[in-house]
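seq/struct pair 1
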Amino acid sequence: MIPKGVRGALLLGIAFSAYTWGAKEVLALYLHEPWQDDPYDAVVSFAMIMIPLLTALVALRTALGAAELPARRAIDLVRASRLIVGVVAVTELSDWVSLAFQAHQDAWNSTTAAMVAGLATFSLCTVAVVEKLRLSAAHRDSDVPDQPDWATDAVVLLERLTHHLGKWRPSASSAVRWVDNVVIARVRFHPVAAAAVFSILLGAAADAPQVVLEGYGLGLAALFITISACSTFAFVALAGRYLRLVSRRGAPLRPGVATSVAVAASVPLAATFRGGLWWVVGSSEANAGPQQLASLLAVFAVATAIVCGSAAWRGAGHTRAVLRSR
């Protein structure tokens, strides 16, 4: 049986995605909300990508039905639901902070009141879902096998869909087997590279409408896509490990991978809080442009690589030394 907390998280993810999309894309709403600018808007933009992704994962696994819900699926469903609620909660907190600091107060009106009422409603719903997830029964993770993972579920669901294709079923089944044996096999063998490719593609797709509508040049478009791709990669790499999308039990996080994740995370963070960081590249809010932003991101990426890389390799060396001493 699908736990109530999981169903609650799924509904919360769908509803909150619709709420954030409307708040950001409908101009009549966007112009009167306190969280319309960074750093608050960056959190909303991140949520608009990640919540639908996580919600789709939960929907994928619940589509298999309660009859095929072994311990591995039950644990991962609860984990994915926790991530949905976590991203929603962080977004709500960011929105409340923008309200507390009275951001764009001169634009507040009855529309703002309606948006805040919606935010309050979602905050209460989030608390309720958190309580349901806390009560959701799940096996201890150490007591269950690694399989089936999410990639396996995707193949199972695709194979089921081929049953409705009539005379096209044999060809469709062959295509599904090719995806399983070639594409997913490579993803399992190179999960970090797969996450990087996925993040670049998703970043490009997410930013394409804004890039086209606002007529960005190639350099500015690349900068926007880089920021989106880096934030996506950092989240997907960590969330994928937590959810065991394709990873093996107990597989250590290699120093190079840990450093790459930290560097990727530093890029959107620097972009989000750029207002107070322009001095790093000798600029200011009034004078900064795309070149200054690119320089700022590069400085933070390099600094993060040096600091985190040194720490990661030192920690790995200490671990190897301890293992040899045993």
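seq/struct pair 2
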Amino acid sequence: MKLNILNLHFLLILLMIYFITSCTKNETEILDPASFGYDYYPLAIGKSWTYQTDSIFYSLKGTVEIDSTTSFIREEIVDTMRNSVNALVYRVDVFHAVDSSLGWELISSSFIEKNQYQLNKVENGLTFIRLVFPVQLNKSWNGNSMISPKTSIEVNGEILEPFDNWYYAYKYLNKSETLAGKIYASVCKVVEVDEENIIAKRYSETKYAKEVGMIFRELWLLDTQNTNTNIPFRNRAEKGFILRQTLVNHN
């Protein structure tokens, strides 16, 4: 009987060791930074991204006027600083060119803060929560929570209030995609808003590639008073724009 009790104690000890080891291993896997998706937007001074930007602008001046343009936007991380809570913030200078071979014009600066929970980007004074961590399929968040729903923007002299009811979500992860002739091995897609009613259409999606950053963006901010829903929205829009940005170069 004594031998059996010792054997039982020994078995219990082995089970406890196995349980502790298993838990430690699982915790290590969960806390592995590589699994959080931080590398979908790498940040360092000197990094830059050049995008071809194709836009369609609508304006109502007696009749609807539609103007299509193609230009280039380059974003370059040029400096870092600490904000009021001592978090590291990257300054991103934004340049514009009608033809990228003819030189660039500095038009604005953006600011990016990335911590263990999210990536915030300040553009034109507005703070967008572009990514949240860990990156998980169908995970959603209020990416415009720091923007008033009544915030307005001006497009070709027309006023829009486009930022209400945006809820971002990861639609796919780790997908191989070819864009502008380049293959990206691991891409995630974020749909930021997909809302349409009789007089307004809001659609925004962004794609990020690991070790690269943002590789594609499509944004529809359109309003109309034409309520004929038999006509596709883009054909009855009266003000706003459709924008597509495609990465053509980065370092």
